[in-house]
Amino acid sequence: VGAEKINTDIVTLTRFLTEEQAKHKEATGDFTLLCHALQFSFKSIAYYIRRATLINLTGLAGSSNMTGDDQKKLDVIGNDIFIAAMKSCGRVRILVSEEEDEAITFSEHPAARYGVVCDPIDGSSNLDAGVSVGTIFGIFKLPEDAEGTKEDLLKPGTELVASGFTMYGASAQLVLTMKGGTVNGFTMDNALGEFILTHPDMKVPKSRAIYSVNEGNSLYWTDPIKEYVNSLKYPEEGGKPYSARYIGSMVADAYRTLLYGGIFAYPADKKSPKGKLRILYECAPMALVFENAGGQAVDSNMKRMLEVVPEHIHDRSGIFMGSYNEVQKVLDVHKKY
Ligand code: AHG
Ligand code: MN
Ligand code: MN
Ligand code: MN
C-alpha cells in the first residue's frame, strides 16, 4: 500500500491572510498586521489556559468588572495579553474589552485606523471546571476623521470589517470572517505553532433539532419565549422533541451550533430586561459569523442583531442565533404576539 497521501499544500492563517490581502489592491497591510497580533494573542492565551491548573492561575482574581462579573485570574491575564498585543502592533487606535471599565485609546498610535472590541476570556465561570472557553473579537475600521474615542465603537455590527472567536478546546479553534465574506475555521497545530485552515467556507446547517438555552431562567421568560421553547420540547402530534445542549460558554455553544446547526438563545427576560450578553464584544461579532455562515441572529425585539446600536460600550442585548430556519421559528412565534 502506498504511503498515505500527505497533504503538502497546507494553508496556514499567515498564508490565508496574505492571500486575502492580495485580493484588495488598495490594502496597506495594516489589517494583516492587526490579524497577526490577534493570532499571537490567541496562541499566548491558549498557552496560559492550558497551564492554569499547573501554575495556580485558576480561581478568582478578587476583583469584578463593569458588568458585575467576578474576574478570574485568567480574565485578567487574557485581558493584559490582548491589550499588549493590540497596542504593540501599532495598527489599533482604540480598544474595548469586557474587562476594562473604559475604552482604551492608544495615544501612541494617533494614525492607527482600526478599533477592536474583545471578550478576552468568554465562559470564564467554567474555567476551573476545564470546560472550553474562548476569546471573542470584532474589528472596526475608523473613519478618517475619527477622534479615537469610544463613540467610534458605538456602532452597529453591520460596520464590523471582521469578527470571530478562538475556542480553547481540545485544540485551539479559530473562526474568522470578514464583512461580506465567508467563515473560515483554523485549527492550531502545536507542533508547527501555526493555525491551519481546516474548515474552509463554513456554512451552518439550515435546520437542526438542537436548542441551547439556560432553562434555569424559564421562570423569568416572556410568553413568546415560553411558547417557542415548549413547541420544541412538546412538539405537535408525531413530532420529535429537540435535543438540549447548553455548555454555558457562549464560544463553545456557538462553535457547536455553527458546526451542527440548531439555535443558541440568551433571551432578555424579567430578571435581565436587557439580556445578559454584551452587544459589542459578544452578540455583534457572533451575529456576523452566523450571518456569513448562512444563519440568522436577532435580538429580543426580533430585530436583526447586526443593526442593534449599543448605547454604551458594555450595553447588553438578548440574542437568538444559529440555523436560518431555527431562528425563523422564533420570529414566527413572535409574529403572533
Ligand atoms: P463571560 O465569561 O465572558 O463573562 O461570558 C459569560 C457568558 C457566556 O459565555 C455564556 O453564554 C453565558 O455567560 C452563560 O450565562 P449563564 O450562566 O447565565 O447561562
Ligand atoms: Mn465575564
Ligand atoms: Mn463572554
Ligand atoms: Mn469574558
From TrEMBL:
Residue stretches making up the Fructose-1-6-bisphosphatase class 1 C-terminal domain: 205-334
Record keywords, A-Z: Carbohydrate metabolism, Hydrolase, Magnesium, Metal-binding
Example GO BP: fructose metabolic process
Keyword presence, Ribonucleoprotein: no
Subunit-structure text: Homotetramer.
Assigned protein family: Belongs to the FBPase class 1 family.
Cross-referenced PANTHER family: FRUCTOSE-1,6-BISPHOSPHATASE-RELATED, FRUCTOSE-BISPHOSPHATASE
Protein name: Fructose-1,6-bisphosphatase
